[in-house]
Design a protein that fits this description.
- This protein is an all-alpha fold and 497 residues long.
- It has 19 helices and no strands.
Length: 497
C-alpha cells in the first residue's frame, strides 16, 4: 500500500509532468488508500458493463436498418440520422461528460448517464415514428457521452501500477468485443422477432441490463472527483461542439443526400472553427481559467504523440468493421447473423491479446504498439490472399487465420495506445484525458466509415471493379496504415512510467 509520504513526493511530479502552470497549482489528488476509494473487481466489472452498452449500441442498429425502414417507412436520410444522431451527440458531448465527472463526481455522472441511457433505450424501443426514434437516439448518444468518460477516469483515479494496466487491458478488450457483439446480437434479435416486436428488442434489451448495472454501481463503484473542480468552459464547449458538428454531419449524411453544397461549406468551415477554438482555449488558460481542452494537457508527450497514432488506427478499425460486414452480406450472400459470427476469430484474438497486453508492455514498453501493428498488417494481408484465391466461393474458414492474427495485433496495439495516451495525465485531469481519448476514438471510427467506407461502396458499384476488388483495395490501404503505425510506434513515449 502506498503511504502518504510517498504520495506527497510522487503526485506533484506526475501532475506537473509536461504541464505549464497558469498561476495556481492544483492540489494533488490522493491515490486510493482506503477500500471505499479503491476499484474492486465487482466495481471494475460494473463500469465495464456500463461502458459496453454505448459501444454495443454504436453497432447494433446497423443490421436492423432495413427492418426499421419497413415498419416505420423512413426515408434514406432519416435512416442515416438513426445512426448519425447517436454518433454525433456521442462525439460532441464526450469531453464535456469527462469535465462534468471531474467537477461533480465520476460515480454520480456514471449513474446519471446510465439512468438516462436506460430511459432513452426504452424510448427507442417504443418509438411510434421515425422522427421519435431519431430524437430518442440523440438523447441516447448524449447519455452515453456522460457515461463513457467516467469509466477510464475511474480507472485512472482508483487504480495504479499493474492493476491499472490490467484494467485498461480489459477496457480495450471490451471495446473490441462490443463491436462484434453489437452486430451479432442485432442479427439474433431481429431474426428472432420476439413477440412480433421486430427490431425493437435491440433497444429494449438495454433496459434490464441498465437497471442491473445501476444497482451494482451504487454499491461497488468508488466515487472520485478532481481535487480542484472547475466550471464548464462555455465558449470552448460551444465552439468545440460546432467544430465536430461541422465535420461529422456532412461526413455521415453527405453520401445519402448526394453531397449538396452545404456539406462542402460545412467541411470548409472546420479548419476555421478549429482555429477559433484553439485561440479561445489558449486565452482561457493564460487568464488562469481551466479550458475545456487545456493546451498544457494536449502538449503532454503522451497526448501530443499518442493521439496522432490513435486516429489512423481507429479510422482503419471502423472502416474494416463496415467493409467486412458489407462484403460478407452483399458480396457472399451471408445473413446478418452469419456475418457477425464471421467476426468471432478476430474477437477471440482481440480479447486474448488485450488481456496479455500489460505483460507485453512491461517487457517492450511502447514497442508493443509496433508489435501489434505488424501482426495486424500480417493478418489483413492473409485476408487479402484468402479473398483473391477463394472468391466467389470464399468461406468463413478461409478468412479465419487472417482474422485471428489481425485481432491479436489490434488487441496489443489498441490497449497499449490507450495506456500510453493517458500515462502522463495527472489524476485531477483524468476526465479531460479520457474525454479527449474517447472523442478521438468515436470520431475516428465514424471518419473511417465516411472515407474508406464510402470509397469501398463507390468502387464496388462500378462494373470495372466489383465487390472483391473494392474490398481488396481498401484492405491494402488498411495494411499500409498498419505499417505506418508500426513505424510510428517505435518513437512513442514509454508508458511504463
Amino acid at each position: 500500500m502506498t503511504t502518504r509520504n510517498e504520495l506527497a513526493t510522487r503526485v506533484p511530479r506526475a501532475a506537473t509532468n509536461g504541464v505549464r502552470t497558469t498561476g495556481h497549482t492544483p492540489a494533488p489528488a490522493a491515490a486510493p488508500t482506503a477500500q471505499h476509494n479503491s476499484l474492486t473487481s465487482l466495481g471494475l466489472i460494473t463500469i465495464l458493463l456500463g461502458a459496453s452498452l454505448p459501444m454495443v449500441d454504436f453497432f447494433i442498429v446497423n443490421v436492423a436498418l432495413p427492418t426499421i425502414d419497413s415498419t416505420l417507412h423512413a426515408s434514406a436520410a432519416t435512416l442515416e440520422l438513426v445512426v448519425a444522431g447517436y454518433g454525433i451527440a456521442y462525439a460532441v458531448l464526450l469531453v464535456l461528460g469527462g469535465r462534468l465527472g471531474d467537477a461533480f463526481g465520476r460515480r454520480r455522472m456514471f449513474l446519471f448517464g446510465l439512468a438516462a441511457f436506460t430511459i432513452a433505450s426504452l424510448a427507442c424501443g417504443l418509438a411510434p415514428t421515425a422522427l421519435t426514434l431519431v430524437l430518442a437516439r440523440v438523447v441516447q448518444g448524449a447519455a452515453a457521452a456522460m457515461t463513457q468518460p467516467q469509466v477510464l477516469s475511474t480507472i485512472q483515479a482508483s487504480t495504479s501500477g499493474p492493476r491499472r494496466s490490467r484494467a485498461i487491458g480489459l477496457y480495450g478488450a471490451v471495446g473490441g468485443i462490443s463491436a462484434t457483439v453489437g452486430q451479432v446480437l442485432g442479427g439474433v434479435l431481429v431474426s428472432a422477432n420476439i413477440d412480433g416486436l421486430s427490431w425493437r428488442p435491440i433497444f429494449l434489451v438495454n433496459v434490464p441490463i441498465g437497471i442491473v448495472a445501476l444497482v451494482l454501481a451504487m454499491r461497488a463503484v468508488p466515487n472520485s472527483r478532481s481535487a480542484n473542480p472547475v466550471g464548464v468552459d462555455n465558449a470552448g464547449t460551444a465552439v468545440f461542439g460546432l467544430t465536430l458538428l461541422a465535420l461529422m454531419v456532412p461526413l455521415m449524411e453527405g453520401s445519402s443526400l448526394g453531397w449538396p453544397v452545404w456539406t462542402w461549406v460545412s467541411l470548409a468551415l472546420v479548419p476555421v472553427l478549429a482555429a477559433v477554438f484553439v485561440v479561445i482555449e489558449r486565452r482561457a488558460e493564460r487568464a488562469g481559467r481551466v479550458p475545456l481542452l487545456p493546451p498544457s494537457v494536449m502538449r503532454m508527450p503522451s497526448m501530443r504523440r499518442g493521439l496522432p497514432v490513435a486516429v489512423p488506427f481507429f479510422v482503419a478499425f471502423g472502416a474494416f468493421m463496415f467493409c467486412y460486414a458489407v462484403t460478407l452480406q452483399d458480396g457472399l450472400g451471408l445473413s446478418a447473423f452469419a456475418s457477425g459470427i464471421a467476426l468471432a476469430p478476430m474477437s477471440v484474438g482481440f480479447f486474448a491479446s488485450s488481456l496479455l497486453s500489460s505483460r507485453l508492455v512491461a517487457w517492450l514498453g511502447a514497442k508493443a504498439v509496433t508489435v501489434g501493428a505488424v501482426l495486424q498488417a500480417i493478418g489483413i494481408g492473409a485476408v487479402i490472399v484468402g479473398v483473391l484465391i477463394g472468391w466467389p466461393h470464399l468461406t468463413v474458414l478461409d478468412l479465419t487465420p487472417g482474422m485471428l492474427i489481425a485481432g491479436i495485433g489490434q488487441g496489443f496495439a489498441m490497449t497499449t495506445l490507450i495506456r500510453l495516451i493517458l500515462s502522463s495525465v495527472p489524476v485531477e485531469r483524468a476526465g479531460v484525458g479520457s474525454g479527449v481519448l474517447v472523442t478521438t476514438q468515436q470520431s475516428s471510427l465514424a471518419l473511417g466509415v465516411a472515407t474508406l467506407g464510402t470509397l469501398f461502396t463507390s468502387l464496388a458499384a462500378l462494373p470495372a471493379w466489383g465487390m472483391r476488388d473494392a474490398f481488396v483495395l481498401v484492405l491494402a490501404v488498411m495494411t499500409a496504415i498498419a505499417v505506418l503505425i508500426a513505424l510510428a510506434g517505435r518513437r512513442l513515449p514509454d508508458p511504463r512510467g
